[in-house]
Specification:
about 350 residues; mainly beta; 16-stranded antiparallel barrel; 24 strands
């Protein structure tokens, strides 16, 4: 597996950058690495179950000018739930973005951004049932660990984003994309699963700046049918999501809402995913490298096979802390809550990212 990943990454790098002069490549490549550790414990009466994960995301961005960029993403790490462990590697993600540099008919320069992404299926797949349980635990809303394995076959995303300043302190934006998801075999000796493609529309607004202002967006998505071995099995419900950040006098208030409609199965019955609401309030401490302590609250709504949960958060994060000349974004978060039915949950997240550009 490791040799396969190394070969694929090397081939993609040669394919994307092979015709660009070496001096230009080195001058404009920025690398970004990180590490995140997460631990969660679930307690019911005298029974305890733990989940933990160590994730190492990697990213390299080539930006020859302000109008174009090519980015390569990879995530890897180890996760464990109820004494079942799994080392996983994500699919390689390659993204190309182009900010329109000149007018093209009704498309005005620097108002339109076009993006294209591909997902190369080098990640961990064909899991045994117990290991599939580990990765499923990572996606529970009140766990939400980084996904450390491939979740699709060869996939591609195409879209466009539009933004325009309405006034000196007001910007609006609209966008959309089509996300084609290829088929794959999630379980060993299982059928070939073809996940639903996604069509997503979004609208955003920005007022003021990070000293005094507001940034928010609304997203609506709908999906094609899901299939196994070419046979339709389900029709996923639509997505509605919204998020916003408000800044004033050093305070930051964040709110996120996410909800999916019920999935209808061809053989009968529905499956309802839980809704999710997150709120957080923090304060930027001046003179301390942008240190921002915060308090937060998360509510997970009732869903099929998943109970509602309430989790309280306390933590801090910091932007652009310098270590040896390189910027870091460290964070720490403690999580205490309860799940309907009497289960208690405790968790901690700690980590940082680091960006560096070796060649100037």
């Amino acid at each position: 597996m490791l040799k396969r990943i190394q070969f694929t990454t090397f081939f993609l790098a040669i394919f994307l950058l092979g015709h660009i002069p070496l001096s230009a490549q080195l001058r404009h490549i920025t690398e970004n690495a990180g590490i995140t550790f997460q631990w969660n414990r679930f307690s019911y009466e005298q029974n305890h179950t733990s989940y933990y994960a160590l994730a190492i995301p990697l990213r390299a961005i080539y930006a020859p000018n302000r109008y174009q960029s090519v980015a390569v993403f990879l995530n890897q790490g180890y996760q464990n739930f109820d004494e079942t462990g799994l080392y996983g590697v994500s699919d390689v993600q390659i993204r190309y973005q182009y900010l329109l540099s000149r007018n093209m008919g009704f498309l005005k320069a620097e108002e339109w951004t076009f993006l294209a992404e591909i997902y190369v299926p080098t990640g961990t797949k064909k899991l045994e049932p117990l290991k599939m349980t580990v990765t499923s635990t990572a996606r529970i809303p009140y766990v939400r660990a980084p996904l450390l394995y491939g979740i699709a076959g060869f996939s591609a995303k195409f879209g466009a984003l539009f933004s325009r300043p309405v006034s000196e302190n007001l910007n609006i934006g609209f966008g959309g994309w089509y996300f084609y998801r290829g088929s794959y075999r999630p379980l060993k000796d299982g059928g070939k699963f073809n996940p639903a493609d996604e069509i997503l529309l979004t609208a955003a607004v920005e007022v003021g700046d990070r000293s005094t202002g507001f940034v928010g967006d609304v997203r609506y998505g709908f999906y094609t049918s899901e299939k196994v071995d070419g046979e339709k099995i389900a029709s996923p419900g639509a997505l509605l999501a919204a998020s916003g950040q408000f800044f004033r006098w050093g305070w930051e208030l964040t709110a996120i809402y996410f909800n999916r409609g019920a999935t209808r199965f061809e053989f009968g019955g529905d499956f309802k995913s839980p809704s999710l609401f997150i709120s957080r309030v923090g304060y930027r401490i001046t003179g301390s490298e942008h240190l921002i302590p915060y308090l937060g609250y998360e509510h997970t709504g009732n869903g099929d096979r998943l109970y509602a949960a309430n989790v309280f958060l306390v933590g801090f994060y910091s932007r652009q802390v310098r270590l040896g000349g390189f910027p870091l974004d460290p964070f720490v978060e403690l999580r205490l809550g309860s799940i309907k039915g009497g289960t208690k949950t405790t968790g901690v997240r700690v980590g940082t990212s680091i960006a560096f550009q070796i060649y100037r």
